[in-house]
Predict the 3D structure of the following.
Amino acid sequence: MNVDAILRSFAHHQVNAILIGGMNFLLRHQPVVTFDVDLWVKDTDENLIKVSAALHELRAEWGRDEQSWKPVPDGFGWLRRQSMFCLTSAHGAIDIFREVEGLRDDYDVYRDRCNECYTASGIHYASLSDRDMLACQMALPEEGRRLDRVVYLENLLKRK
Amino acid sequence: MTAEEKQREEEKRDRMYDPVLRWKHIQEAITWAEANMPPHLRRNRPRQPKQLPARESGTQREG
């Protein structure tokens, strides 16, 4: 998976997006097993046009079912069909979220709390804050929570 | 979006992911993660045995 290529494409198209999930935790804190890039995108028409352009560039594929699985269509209407998408791409698996469980306020509230970060090769990304990463975990059913991340983040936030 | 909907999306992708490409992506992800982790967490970080007591660094043998 070429994570840099994925983040670079989203940055190139000026997508308003926040890196969440395992990759965000890995980059900020500890090594965890994760093989997709989770991005929460601002849910506006203007931004979804950019999301679609970035996904085109990455040769992403998606379908409502196996029969309709194909390169992502032109335009952004398809991104309105559901609130999250698991896609494949030439550079790796990408999850796109229009809404995130546990984060119920306006997107901009969380975007303002993000850390502005760079990968080792200098690609910029917005990283969901530790406090909001923990909120995401706690919103999951108990059996679905990543206990190692919860404990780590709770201890980290206690020390702050 | 419920946890079940997310799981269904993931399972659908898993079925559509070309296994060869997927394996390539997994290998690349491991290499990329290694390069992007903080230095103290990297597996292949340079060793600094002079900073460790001889017994810990395994340079001193008994007998």
About this structure: DSSP finds three helices and no strands in chain B. The CA atoms of residues 34 and 42 of chain B lie 6 Å apart. Chain B touches chain A at residues 1, 3, 5-6, 9-10, 12-13, 15-18, 21, 25-26, 28-29, 32-33, 35-37, 41 (CB under 8 Å). Chain B has a mean pLDDT of 75.
